Each structure stands twice: as C-alpha cells, then as structure tokens.
Amino acid sequence: MDLAQHRHMPPVSTLMTPFPYFVHPDEPVSRVLALMREHDIRHVPVKEEDRVVGLISETDLRWLTSPRGASVDPESVRVREVPVPPPYSVELTAPLGPVLLEMARLHVGAAIVLRSGRLAGIVTETDVCRALGSVLERRFGPGGGDAA
Predict the structure, then answer these.
(1) Is the distance from CB of 78 to CB of 31 less than 8 angstroms?
(2) Residue 119: how many CB atoms within 10 A of its CB?
(3) Which of 23-32, 47-56, 65-74 has the lowest mean pLDDT?
(4) Calpha distance 111→94 (Å, rounded)
(5) What are the DSSP calls for the chain, one per residue?
(6) pLDDT by residue (tens digit) across 89-141?
C-alpha cells in the first residue's frame, strides 16, 4: 500500500480493502450494525446475487440513534428499506487519482471496486488518509512541519 514506490499513477486496487464484508438486501439492519461494530468499519456494500446494489454507511444509519428512530427495532428493518443512493463504483484497474478526485467531488466516503462487474474490494476515506499519511511521513518524517 506504499504509494511512494509507484513511478506512475497506481490503480485503485493499490489502496482497496479486498473482499469486504457485505450484506444482502433482505437482511436486517441489525446485521449491518453488527458488522460495523465487530470489524470497526463504516461502509458495508449491499449485494443481490453477484451485483452490488447499494452501499450503507454509518451516516445512513444515524436516524436509528436519533429521537425519531429510538422506537425502531433494527432487527425489524430490512437493508432494502434504508434509503441510500447508488454507490460510486469503479473497475479494479481504474487510475487512483481520478477515482479519489471523483469521490471528493461526489462527497462520498467510499468507492466500490469491481472486477468484471463483481465486488472485489472497497476504498474508503480511511484507506486514503492512511496512505497519504504514510507518504507524508516518508517524505517529511514523523515530526511534522515548521516550528511556529
């Protein structure tokens, strides 16, 4: 995952987390919450057969902890009932730079990575921050910038 070693634009697969956890549309939202808690993740792809049909983020589920959602049992709500926009998806070989710029333009925290249309991985803002931090530390050292 060391971006500094690349001489040319690396593909998105360089930063992706392969084989991400996923859920099916008919599973309860409680399953999504359990995956997020258990694996310390904030995005869970939704798959129907071999196709990615959605991406549920921690933000998409905030309503469950609001006063409006306090009376809702996450076991009774199905994943397909959570209103989420279609996920931003890219092919495994897509150049990383344009993918990250598009994520920023769309204000999305993750991109689904596909291989021949099937789920191969996920790139999240956490992955990007980790990689950028590593590049910066390698280039400038862990001490940081100028002393003010």
Answers:
(1) no
(2) 20
(3) 65-74
(4) 11
(5) --GGG-SSPPBGGGT-EES---B-TTSBHHHHHHHHHHHT-SEEEEEETTEEEEEEETGGGGGGGSGGGTT--TTTSBGGGS--PPPPEEETTSBHHHHHHHHHHHT-SEEEEEETTEEEEEEEHHHHHHHHHHHHHHHH-TT-S---
(6) 999 999 999 999 999 999 999 999 999 999 999 999 999 999 988 888 888 88
Return the pLDDT at 114.
Answer: 97
Across the strands, what pairs with 55? 45
Place of tokens 């991985």: 121
Total-model pTM: 0.86
